[in-house]
Write a structure and sequence with these properties.
Shape: elongated
Number of domains: 1
Order of helices and strands: HHHHHHH
Number of helices: 7
Structural class: mainly alpha
Oligomer: single chain
Largest sheet: none
Strand content: under 5%
Radius of gyration: 16 Å
Distance between the termini: 28 Å
């Protein structure tokens, strides 16, 4: 796989994984790391940026939630949204540090949009959380953790 193709594949998988679609970008990252053909720092950077941008899509969906919340295709169930709203209500914008977490992460990013979290703070906290996850995964894969 060429370097450009590898980075595009990783970026697409990380972006989609952060949205409403179930996809795991971690396997793509680890697979590319194991080949040894690509700089680890660049892989982590690409995955982090793309995953953060995917969460911005959720934030934007949250801004529009009241208009589309009852549609069957809506990305989060009422139960998942209620759970995320409780988390967000209790912990505020700091709950976005869990945006990397399975099951609760995506609904939290949607709720942040619903509750009108400022985009700059949203991006800062989500980028920290998601980059931290990819750095940790890279360190574990390299046997440094």
């Amino acid at each position: 796989m060429s370097t450009l193709t590898a980075y595009i594949t990783l970026a697409l998988s990380a972006f989609v994984a952060a949205t409403i679609f179930p996809l795991q970008s971690e396997a793509v990252l680890v697979g590319l790391m194991v080949t040894g053909d690509h700089a680890v720092w660049a892989l982590v950077l690409v995955a982090s940026v793309a995953n953060t941008l995917g969460s911005v899509v959720n934030w934007a969906l949250g801004r529009l939630i009241h208009r589309y919340r009852d549609r069957r295709w809506f990305p989060a169930s009422p139960e998942a949204l209620a759970r995320a709203e409780r988390w967000y209500g209790r912990w505020g914008h700091w709950s976005l540090m869990l945006s990397w977490a399975p099951i609760i992460g995506d609904p939290l990013t949607i709720v942040a949009g619903v509750l009108r979290e400022p985009l700059w703070r949203f991006v800062l906290l989500v980028a920290l959380a998601k980059t931290g996850r990819y750095v940790t995964l890279a360190l574990i894969t390299l046997g440094l953790m």
